[in-house]
Every structure is written in structure tokens, then in C-alpha cells.
């Protein structure tokens, strides 16, 4: 029997605890390597994250949930198809971890060692990577079990994107995904040659020197030759207009903004997504055949690459400026990466069951600037 949410999870030994956080040494993180890998837009790996007993307990719960039919197919949604997703046998199946919400809010009198470790992981990552709002337990941090059998795969995707790239609803949620994490619980002795199922990521060949956010504005692309992050400010005030505009910019060494485009109103795109608009304007303004429409300099248009270019990916192209890194989903391996920066996919599983405890730690969504109109 499973005691969802309010009591110790079956098989996960529990202990009475207070609201204090366990010692950071419990996570065994290599802090310097963690900072380096996340800043470079790459995957951090930590082997032997759980004890053997903890792995056995988690797997026991997963098998029970699987037996009870709680897992449901979940591929990657295609917004163009709406509700007609037709997920099937080649999609992974997932299940929300039943005790996760109670663990975050600590409404339970007892907390298992596994939940304590995950809580400590979140708090330590928030501290080490200077993402303070990630420590807020009331944000919509996510956690799920994932089960993928033979033939399953996940196509290339991003776990998170700029609020403006999500459409009008992007600004309605109080938080967004900040860090993606998984602890693999796959069949033992897993190899890519025999089992497949690699986590294939596409970091930039040259490690970036800038954060994926600046002044609360998220990165949406790169200037490839300069290896500079390109940010989207959705709150740019244009003289003579009451409504804030969108504008792309980079940041120079002195933390000075250099604008790459003219301001535009996202509301006037009329059925075209911001990503599609930027891709079309890049192609048009980089041609050199006419005066630029959006980009101020045709050289910047030629150098600009979107973080997420679905049309190019659908043509089989790799993310511009990237290299391929494959990670084997070895049992008890923790992986962490930035949800905004890193395109990734899961290769086809040839044999066995690729299982994981995974999720996303959230940060607060950029708030409406309270002094926005005081700047005019």
C-alpha cells in the first residue's frame, strides 16, 4: 500500500525531522566542477548520488506505481497538433512523484532520507549557482518518475525558454524552470552500445562567458563568432509609445548593453511566434540585398543563431556552433544542466528499461518592472 503525500513512502525509511536543512555534504557535489559545467552550458555529472538502499526503495515504489497503472505515456507535445498528440509505445511513460509536494512544503511530520537529499540538492544548487529564488519551496518545482522501454526516444528540445517565446501565457506563471536534473535508475550494467538511450546534448563548442540571464532577461540566442549570449528585453520603452517593446541585446565587458535590433511589438506579429519572426528577420537582414528591417547591422544578423531553432532541427541540422556530447544513463548517476541553455534529446533505447527520478527546480518568473514608466 502506498501512503501518498502525508505519510512515509512505502519502502523509504523515514525519520522525524524539523524544518532545518541537512548538511550540504550529503549531496557530495563537486562544487567547482558544478559551477564550471553549468556556466559552460554543459551537463554536470555526479555518480553514486543515492545509497544502494535508497535505490532499492525508490525502485520498489516505481514498480508498485507501474503495477497500479499510475504511469501514463508522455512524449513531447506538439502545440500545432493540440490535443491530438497520439502518444504511443515509443514514448516514455511518466508519473508524478506522489510525496513531492508534501516534501516541499514540509507538511509531513516525517521525511524520508531520499526526500531530504533532494531538498538539500535544491538548496545547495540555489546557493552555489546564485539562484536565490530557487530556494523558495512554494514555487512549482517539479519531480516525476520516468520509464522508457525498448524503442522509446525523445526528440531534440529545450526544457525552458524566454517568457515571450511562450506567447501571452508565458508571463502568467509565477515561476519557470531553472535547472533540469535526473538521477538514473536504469537496468544495471547499462551500456550505450548494447542498450542505447544516451542523453545527447548540444553545448556550444566554445564555452560561453556569460550567464543565460541578464537583469532578469533570458537568453534567446547567440552571436556565434563572438560567442556572446543574446538576451531579449520585453520591457523596452520607446519614446512616444506607452507600451513596452521587445529588443535584442548583448552585454559588453563593462556590463554595457549593445542593442542588436530595432524595438518591436510582439502583439503585432499576428499568429507568428517570436522565434519564427526572429528567424525570418535574420534571414532577410543578413542577405545584404536591402536595408535591414529589424537588425541594426547585417553582420549581427548573419552571426545570430536562435537557441531553439525547430525548423532547422526538423531539417536534420544540428544547433549552430554546437558539439555533440553523449551521456550514458548509468544507474545512480545524477545529471544537472541549465534548462534554458542546453538543447538535448534522448537516443533510441535498443534494449532494457531506462528509468529515472527527475525534475526541474524553478526560479521566479521575471516580474513586471514596477518603475517601468518612471524611466520615461
TrEMBL record:
GO terms for molecular function: ferrous iron binding; L-ascorbic acid binding; peptidyl-proline dioxygenase activity. The keyword Phosphoprotein does not apply. GO terms for biological process: cellular response to hypoxia. Gene3D superfamilies: q2cbj1_9rhob like domain (2.60.120.620). The keyword S-adenosyl-L-methionine does not apply. Keywords: Vitamin C. This is Prolyl 4-hydroxylase alpha subunit Fe(2+) 2OG dioxygenase domain-containing protein. It comes from Fistulifera solaris (Oleaginous diatom).
Amino acid at each position: 500500500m502506498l501512503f501518498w503525500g502525508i505519510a512515509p513512502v512505502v519502502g523509504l525509511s523515514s525519520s522525524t525531522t524539523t524544518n532545518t536543512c541537512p548538511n550540504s555534504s550529503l549531496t557530495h557535489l563537486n562544487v567547482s566542477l558544478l559551477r564550471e559545467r553549468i556556466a559552460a552550458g554543459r551537463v554536470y555529472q555526479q555518480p553514486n548520488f543515492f545509497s544502494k538502499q535508497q535505490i532499492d526503495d525508490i525502485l520498489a515504489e516505481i514498480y508498485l506505481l507501474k503495477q497500479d497503472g499510475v504511469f501514463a505515456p508522455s512524449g513531447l507535445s506538439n502545440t500545432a497538433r493540440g490535443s491530438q498528440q497520439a502518444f504511443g509505445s515509443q514514448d516514455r511513460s511518466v508519473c508524478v512523484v506522489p510525496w513531492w509536494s508534501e516534501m516541499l512544503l514540509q507538511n509531513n511530520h516525517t521525511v524520508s532520507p531520499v526526500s531530504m537529499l533532494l531538498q538539500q540538492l535544491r538548496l545547495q544548487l540555489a546557493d552555489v549557482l546564485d539562484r536565490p529564488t530557487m530556494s523558495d519551496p512554494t514555487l512549482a518545482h517539479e519531480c516525476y518518475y520516468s520509464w522508457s522501454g525498448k524503442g522509446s526516444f525523445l526528440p531534440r528540445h529545450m526544457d525552458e525558454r524566454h517568457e515571450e517565446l511562450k506567447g501571452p501565457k508565458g508571463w502568467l506563471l509565477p515561476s519557470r524552470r531553472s535547472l533540469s536534473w535526473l538521477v538514473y535508475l536504469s537496468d544495471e550494467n547499462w551500456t550505450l552500445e548494447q542498450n542505447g538511450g544516451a542523453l545527447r546534448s548540444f553545448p556550444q563548442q566554445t564555452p560561453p562567458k556569460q550567464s543565460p540571464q541578464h537583469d532578469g532577461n533570458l537568453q534567446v540566442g547567440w552571436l556565434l563568432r563572438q560567442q556572446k549570449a543574446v538576451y531579449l528585453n520585453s520591457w523596452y520603452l520607446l519614446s512616444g509609445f506607452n507600451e513596452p517593446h521587445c529588443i535584442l541585446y548583448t552585454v559588453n565587458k563593462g556590463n554595457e548593453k549593445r542593442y542588436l535590433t530595432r524595438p518591436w511589438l510582439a502583439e503585432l506579429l499576428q499568429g507568428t511566434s517570436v522565434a519564427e519572426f526572429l528567424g525570418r528577420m535574420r534571414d532577410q537582414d543578413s542577405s545584404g540585398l536591402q536595408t535591414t528591417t529589424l537588425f541594426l547591422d547585417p553582420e549581427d544578423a548573419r552571426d545570430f543563431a536562435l537557441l531553439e531553432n525547430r525548423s532547422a532541427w526538423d531539417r536534420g541540422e544540428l544547433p549552430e556552433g554546437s558539439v555533440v556530447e553523449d551521456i550514458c544513463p548509468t544507474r545512480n548517476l545524477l545529471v544537472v544542466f541549465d534548462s534554458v541553455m542546453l538543447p538535448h534529446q534522448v537516443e533510441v533505447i535498443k534494449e532494457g528499461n531506462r528509468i529515472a527520478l527527475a525534475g526541474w527546480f524553478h526560479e521566479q518568473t521575471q516580474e513586471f518592472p514596477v518603475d517601468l514608466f518612471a524611466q520615461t
